[in-house]
């Protein structure tokens, strides 16, 4: 009883005194929260884990004048110039002799940036996990599943029976590997982004655009003639074709684009919320605000975890529904 | 003076204040839209589960999927407002 009371008294005194400690910091410059947020959700040429620990990644440039240049990104840190190249806010530009930017030379940037390294890492994680699952199925033939196979089997069966089979119909097996890969790849990238100092790969609109383009190609290449009949000769009176055909064509384009923007906006908005909450701690510089923000940020992190799963599921579900609408037979 | 004339006077010097106002209002309206839509879905899901508790698993799955679809539309608007705010 006395121990509980003294704990309570000590913590109250500590919190109260912390507010007075926070008041004598006006001599430092303002904390640039917009810059911090943009830096953390963008891409960069090295992999910065904290201030001062930066893992250098290869910079690979190709231009007609200089050919192929491969060097470490640490040579371009902090505005240094190497071989006439300078890292200008993420763009690598070539400088003239007098230090101004050479506008005529646009080197193609094939560097391994933070996002590319993350893609390689998550592909490696996928391969590791699923080769273990496949080995489990080979060695446990006819017996109950064990280990990581038993963790993933309900998920894969859920995807097969409740997502892909109802959407695509009897010929789902041709598309099922792609939908599984899509779901787990997006899921692993979403979860990697939730770690502190984690990379923001699925919030990169180029990444989601490529996934949406692949969906677009699969849907339109495997579409049968009933699908194109619904697009170019829908079941409406003939005089409405002049309105309906542009609307249907826009629909063909908008479905993958909505996939792209949905995943990008959900993940990026989640990261911006988390970074803003952490930035609040640095703006106020007090332990009391730190504690309150910590609790709220924990709650928001749990929502972000749910969003990570749901967005991967939605992407896979909508992709399988679009494929289903493309391959379904005439009823 | 009326609110409109006060705003117009404040904006007369430079237009970037009106851009910020537009972006903020847009994002707020999108949030209201998302809240209303998802609230309706949640309410119908609650009613459905109350009528038939055996179906609560299916209803819960569908509710989360539909909530994600509605939220996507609200986030389209939020992304556009973000793009506006970067062009000030």
Automatic annotation (TrEMBL), chain B:
A molecular function GO annotation:
lipid binding
Pfam families hit by this protein: ATP-synt_C
Q: Which InterPro entries match?
A: ATP_synth_csu_bac/chlpt (IPR005953), ATP_synth_F0_csu (IPR000454), ATP_synth_F0_csu_DDCD_BS (IPR020537), ATP_synth_F0_csu_sf (IPR038662), ATPase_proteolipid_c-like_dom (IPR002379), F/V-ATP_Csub_sf (IPR035921)
Residues under site feature: Reversibly protonated during proton transport: 71
Q: Please provide, in alphabetical order, the Gene Ontology terms of the cellular component aspect for this entry.
A: plasma membrane; proton-transporting ATP synthase complex; proton-transporting two-sector ATPase complex, proton-transporting domain
Tell me which domain of life the UniProt entry assigns to the organism this sequence originates from: Bacteria
- Which residue range or ranges hold the V-ATPase proteolipid subunit C-like domain? 21-84
Entries under PROSITE patterns matching the protein = ATPASE_C
Annotated membrane-spanning segments are: 22-42, 63-86
Q: What is the annotated localization of this protein? A: Cell inner membrane; Membrane
Task: Give the keywords, sorted.
Answer: ATP synthesis, Cell inner membrane, Cell membrane, CF(0), Hydrogen ion transport, Ion transport, Lipid-binding, Membrane, Transmembrane, Transmembrane helix, Transport
Q: Topologically, how does it sit relative to the membrane?
A: Multi-pass membrane protein
Classify the main location.
Answer: membrane
Oligomeric state and partners? F-type ATPases have 2 components, F(1) - the catalytic core - and F(0) - the membrane proton channel. F(1) has five subunits: alpha(3), beta(3), gamma(1), delta(1), epsilon(1). F(0) has three main subunits: a(1), b(2) and c(10-14). The alpha and beta chains form an alternating ring which encloses part of the gamma chain. F(1) is attached to F(0) by a central stalk formed by the gamma and epsilon chains, while a peripheral stalk is formed by the delta and b chains.
What is this protein's function? Key component of the F(0) channel; it plays a direct role in translocation across the membrane. A homomeric c-ring of between 10-14 subunits forms the central stalk rotor element with the F(1) delta and epsilon subunits.
Family note: Belongs to the ATPase C chain family.
What is this protein called in UniProt? ATP synthase subunit c
């Amino acid at each position: 009883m006395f121990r509980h009371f003294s704990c309570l008294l000590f913590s109250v005194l500590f919190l109260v005194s912390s507010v007075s400690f926070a008041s004598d910091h006006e001599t430092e410059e303002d904390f640039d929260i917009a810059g911090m947020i943009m830096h953390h959700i963008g891409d960069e040429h090295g992999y910065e884990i904290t201030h001062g620990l930066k893992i250098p990644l290869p910079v690979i440039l190709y231009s007609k004048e200089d050919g192929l240049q491969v060097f470490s990104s640490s040579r371009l840190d902090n505005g240094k110039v190497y071989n006439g190249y300078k890292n200008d806010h993420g763009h690598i530009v070539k400088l003239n002799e007098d230090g101004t930017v050479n506008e005529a030379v646009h080197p193609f940037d094939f560097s391994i940036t933070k996002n590319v390294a993350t893609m390689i890492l998550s592909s490696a994680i996928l391969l590791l996990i699923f080769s273990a699952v496949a080995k489990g199925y080979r060695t446990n033939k006819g017996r109950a599943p064990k280990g990581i196979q038993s963790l993933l089997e309900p998920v894969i069966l859920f995807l097969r029976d409740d997502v892909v089979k109802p959407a695509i119909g009897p010929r789902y097996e041709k598309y099922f590997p792609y939908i599984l890969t899509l779901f787990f790849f997006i899921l692993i990238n979403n979860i990697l982004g939730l770690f502190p100092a984690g990379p923001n790969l699925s919030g990169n609109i180029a990444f989601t655009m490529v996934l949406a383009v692949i969906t677009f190609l699969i849907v339109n290449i495997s579409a049968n003639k009933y699908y194109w009949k619904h697009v170019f000769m829908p079941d409406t009176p003939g005089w409405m074709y002049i309105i309906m055909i542009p609307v249907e064509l826009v629909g063909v384009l908008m479905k993958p684009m909505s996939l792209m923007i949905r995943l990008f906006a959900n993940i990026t908005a989640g990261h911006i919320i988390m970074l803003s909450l952490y930035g609040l701690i640095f703006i106020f510089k007090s332990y009391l605000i730190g504690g309150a923000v910590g609790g709220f940020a924990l709650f928001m992190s749990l929502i972000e975890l749910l969003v990570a799963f749901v967005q991967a599921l939605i992407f896979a579900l909508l992709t399988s529904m679009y494929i289903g609408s493309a391959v379904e037979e005439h009823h | 003076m009326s609110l409109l004339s006060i705003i117009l006077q404040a904006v007369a010097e430079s237009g970037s204040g009106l851009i910020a106002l537009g972006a903020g209002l847009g994002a707020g309206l999108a949030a209201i839209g998302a809240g209303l839509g998802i609230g309706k879905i949640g309410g119908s899901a609650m009613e459905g589960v109350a009528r038939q508790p055996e179906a609560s698993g299916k209803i819960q799955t569908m509710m989360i999927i539909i909530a994600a679809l509605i939220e996507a539309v609200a986030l389209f608007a939020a992304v556009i407002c973000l793009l506006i705010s970067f062009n000030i």
